[in-house]
Amino acid sequence: MTSARDKALLGVGGVAAAGILAWRTMFPWIGYDLEFIRKGKKATDKIGEDIKKQRFLIDMFEEKVTSCPRKPFLIFEDRIYTYEFMNEQAKRVANIAMTWGFKLGETVALFINNEPSFIWTFLGLQKIGLGVAFINYHIRAKALLHSIKACEARALIIGLGEDLFHAIDEIRHDLDIPLYLQGDNIPDGYKPWDEMMINTLPSEICRNVRAEFHLFTPCCYIFTSGTTGLPKPAIVNQAKAIGYSKFFTFSEISKDDIIYITTPLYHSAACLSLFSTMDVGSTALLRRKFSAHHYFKEARRHKVTIMQYIGELPRYLLTVPESSEDGIHNIRIAIGNGLRMDIWEKFQNRFKIPKIVEFFGATEGTAAMANIQGRVGAVGRMSPFLIVFLGTGEPGILIAAIPITYSDGFYKGGKEINEKKIVRNAFVDGDAFFNFGDLLVQDKDYFVYFKDRVGDTFRWKGENVSTNEVANVLTGLDVIQDANVYGVQVPGTDGRAGMAAILLKNGKQVTESIVKQIYHHCEENLPSFARPIFLRFIKEMALTTTYKQRKVENVKEGFDPNKIKDELFYIHPESKSYLPLTATFF
């Protein structure tokens, strides 16, 4: 028989169930809130615990070296690098850096490709409390020099590769810091890094060396793309690095996971994976460069469980011919940003990805959001129970409150560039918010979708391209009088491809020499994603009544030679030039 106590419990349970049912009736989306609160609380609790204990990123790594020394930390080109081995190399780096006498928080810049030495060099510098600037290895000339100087680097470590060496050698005479070069046959003006590593003992550094570490101590600097001005070093301090290390909590990450990293290590996306790996003691599969044809083959071979994507990566994977093995793998979740609505379900269904977590944020931002429920196309969710936002379907600019951890600003390099990102006195006098510069819209369930970019920019290969910046680079050439830059849609691709309507000086005619000159100028001064894919040579620049360049008509005409009488060209990297775009090629 049922006891009085059991009846009472059943009664309470019935009331609770009725209460939940009532809430779900009034607020059908509350289930999304409950799931987010459960997973979000887990992440915030872990962040709070690490902040309270002052458990910094390097501490996370060293803990795993102690608890699981022989476990694979990194898999690279079919070689396994254990936590213990990575630590041995990091200790050599730390002992070399100790002799430099730099102060806590001062900066050393890394110009290294995707390879294990990038990671152990970063860890070694962290052991003695130095900030590390992750220099984009695709930039050259002025942008490269500016990046090294903007982060106030006290030294530069250059990785293997003739391309990296030549890039630095071109600007070497403008650098007044020691240059350490990996490899053999080190030329004058450089110090032999590999030789120093071999001749340095891997003695552990006393933790007291970094006793003055605090939450605002720089961990690393990650640079903006440089398409809205020159690259800016965004500050990732120790507090933010702790936050990065917990981001994969939304994927229920554990020590048994294997995370696939194909994005450049200088990018914040790769940092999320790498820092999370160190936190829980999992394994990272690192690739030198993303390859759509090899992606799932390697994922299968190494039993990858978490894939991270960004921008165009899923679309590139869909261009590979279909195979009966497409859905055969161990991947349980894909997490990233930039997966557009038009290919979301096609990507998920073809490759049988059990769950997709799309997130939204900015390296220098003060907040982020995540779509943990897998709502197609959404970048996150903002429930009225969790935050005050907009009405359904009403677009608005995303801003986020600035916490105390941003006391040093968003970027290294002065108050002016920090102020451009701040909205002051938005709701009450004295408040301050970070302006993401993105227009978002929400649906009836409070899922949030990317709508447009504020300002004269377009999106290509997952990056935002400033039309003004590209135009300024183009007009730096003597033969160009003016340039009108805009984005055009290309069927089957994400975002918009860059196109430039160019007015040559003094009525010059277009020649093979001129288009080659433009190609090399763009190659030297713009990152690959910002270089115009199409060129249109015009006879006069169309202006509005307020003397602004007209873009609307150009955008509508696109790059169709059947609509355009001007000479058209398309980029052809194999020829190191632009080639004529005829109706046949179109």
TrEMBL record:
AMP-binding enzyme C-terminal domain boundaries: 469-547
This protein's record includes keyword Cell cycle: no
The entry's keywords: Ligase
Catalytic activity: tetracosanoate + ATP + CoA = tetracosanoyl-CoA + AMP + diphosphate; a very long-chain fatty acid + ATP + CoA = a very long-chain fatty acyl-CoA + AMP + diphosphate
Keyword DNA damage part of the UniProt annotation: no
Pfam families (alphabetical): AMP-binding, AMP-binding_C
PROSITE patterns: AMP_BINDING
Domain (AMP-dependent synthetase/ligase) ranges: 61-384
Domain of life: Eukaryota
InterPro entries assigned: AMP-bd_C (IPR025110), AMP-bd_C_sf (IPR045851), AMP-binding_CS (IPR020845), AMP-dep_synth/lig_dom (IPR000873), ANL_N_sf (IPR042099)
Family in the record: Belongs to the ATP-dependent AMP-binding enzyme family.
Protein name: Long-chain-fatty-acid--CoA ligase
